[in-house]
Amino acid sequence: MIHIGLHGASGKMGSEIIANLKGLNNAKLSVAYTIEPMSVDDGVIVTDKYDVLFDNSDVVIDFSIASASINLINYARTNPKPLVIGTTGLGDEGMELIKLASSTMPILQATNMSLGIAVLNRLTQMASRVLSEFDIEIVEMHHRNKIDAPSGTALTLGEHAAKGRNLNLSNVKVSGRDGIVGARSKDEIAIMALRGGDIVGRHRVGFYNDGEYIELNHTATSRATFAKGAIKAGIWLADKEPKLYTIYDALGI
């Protein structure tokens, strides 16, 4: 039985992970970290202390906000524990911190935990390489309360598109157009964000050429798909050696 600690337990994703852990025969929620009052099942520890979180778990799953996630990783650097990081918007500083911390503990970091998105990333890279003359435009849609834009998933899709053409995304990314911006450049990879309502997540990667185009789409209809992926990743990661892992490692694709 894998004892899972949940960082950011009172959030929307935290609630989904708690719900999807119920009834599993190989993993259970042992401790919930939150700074807000919340109720959980009997036997689950609720805490706002990192030492309690780490001492009562085999692996910690993090779905919080960027600043809280960075605090968690910094604590783990001197108190190693397998970490699944699903928080987005960490920026270059956060990603460098994850790479540094993974030298002393296993860390799996992913901007999206769904199997469908993992496959979409692979397809995007392949299509980008094969359709080398096509323009690439990525559009993502999320609920009104999402605080980072573009989404981490969209940026990861952009990275795979850029990799397919041996480009650095930071050199070719466009995330907004307004006014007289001129013609589109050949290497440009646009990533546009839309926000509204309660949309769980929609991502479209379009490859456009004269006379034809191809669009790859993924729509999440429930946060449960991300929760199940995160739990699967946590169970898989619990006994791994220190290293930075990807969702592809956990899913075996």
TrEMBL record:
InterPro entries hit by this protein: DapB_C (IPR022663), DapB_N (IPR000846), DapB_N_CS (IPR022664), DHDPR_bac (IPR023940), NAD(P)-bd_dom_sf (IPR036291)
Domain Dihydrodipicolinate reductase N-terminal: 2-113
Residues annotated as the enzyme's active site: H142 (proton donor/acceptor), K146 (proton donor)
Domain Dihydrodipicolinate reductase C-terminal stretches: 116-251
Keyword Cytoplasm annotated: yes
Keyword line: Amino-acid biosynthesis, Cytoplasm, Diaminopimelate biosynthesis, Lysine biosynthesis, NAD, NADP, Oxidoreductase
Reactions performed catalytically: (S)-2,3,4,5-tetrahydrodipicolinate + NAD(+) + H2O = (2S,4S)-4-hydroxy-2,3,4,5-tetrahydrodipicolinate + NADH + H(+); (S)-2,3,4,5-tetrahydrodipicolinate + NADP(+) + H2O = (2S,4S)-4-hydroxy-2,3,4,5-tetrahydrodipicolinate + NADPH + H(+)
CDD domains to which the protein is assigned, alphabetical: DHDPR_N
Listed pathway(s): Amino-acid biosynthesis; L-lysine biosynthesis via DAP pathway; (S)-tetrahydrodipicolinate from L-aspartate: step 4/4
Subcellular location: Cytoplasm
Binding residues annotated for NAD(+), in chain numbering: G8, A9, S10, G11, K12, M13, D42, G86, T87, T88, A110, T111, N112, M113
GO MF term set: 4-hydroxy-tetrahydrodipicolinate reductase
Binding of (S)-2,3,4,5-tetrahydrodipicolinate, residues: H143, G152, T153
Top-level taxonomic group: Bacteria
Chief site of localization: cytoplasm
EC number: 1.17.1.8
Listed Pfam families: DapB_C (PF05173), DapB_N (PF01113)
Self-association and partners: Homotetramer.
Protein function: Catalyzes the conversion of 4-hydroxy-tetrahydrodipicolinate (HTPA) to tetrahydrodipicolinate.
Family membership: Belongs to the DapB family.
Family matches, as HAMAP family: DapB (MF_00102)
Record's protein name: 4-hydroxy-tetrahydrodipicolinate reductase
Gene name of this polypeptide: dapB
